[in-house]
Amino acid sequence: MKFCPKCDTRLVLKKIEKKAVLACPRPGCDYQEPASKVEAVVSSENQNQEVLKILEKDVKGLHPMPTTKVVCPKCGHTKAYFWLVQTRGTDESPSQFFRCVRCNNTWREYS
Ligand SMILES: [Zn+2]
Ligand SMILES: [Zn+2]
Q1: pLDDT below 70 — which residues of the chain?
Q2: pLDDT for 59-91, tens place per residue?
Q3: Residue 103: CB partners within 8 Å, gap ≥ 6?
Q4: Ligand 1 centroid distance, CA of 23 (Å)
Q5: Ligand closest to the CA atom of residue 12
Q6: CA 90–ligand 2 middle distance (angstroms)
Q7: Torsion-angle region of residue 107: left (phi > 0), alpha (psi -120 to 50) or beta?
Q8: Which domains does the chain have, with CATH numbers?
């Protein structure tokens, strides 16, 4: 897991122009770097939803992110992209991230 060198906010994975980048989600901070050490793996643990698991390994490309029904805390929209990020510690459970399809607000939820 990487943190923004400018403001220490945890970086989130974004797909910009077909490239995976780690970007700072903090408003006003536009820091980003190539996500070369991130691997995206699609699993189908849930039959209806594909869960995007992102591990800290090399990645060749990023799968399109699946969406789920969740309420955006910012604009109230009910559909958001979601993915899981495994943190460094092996005893920690993966963190789930959401990004609103309407306003691009990104937030985190502990699973
Ligand atoms: Zn930042
Ligand atoms: Zn929203």
Answers
A1: 36-64, 87-90, 110-111
A2: 334 556 788 999 999 999 999 988 887 766 667
A3: 72, 74, 75, 77
A4: 8
A5: 1
A6: 32
A7: beta
A8: 12-110 (2.20.25.10)
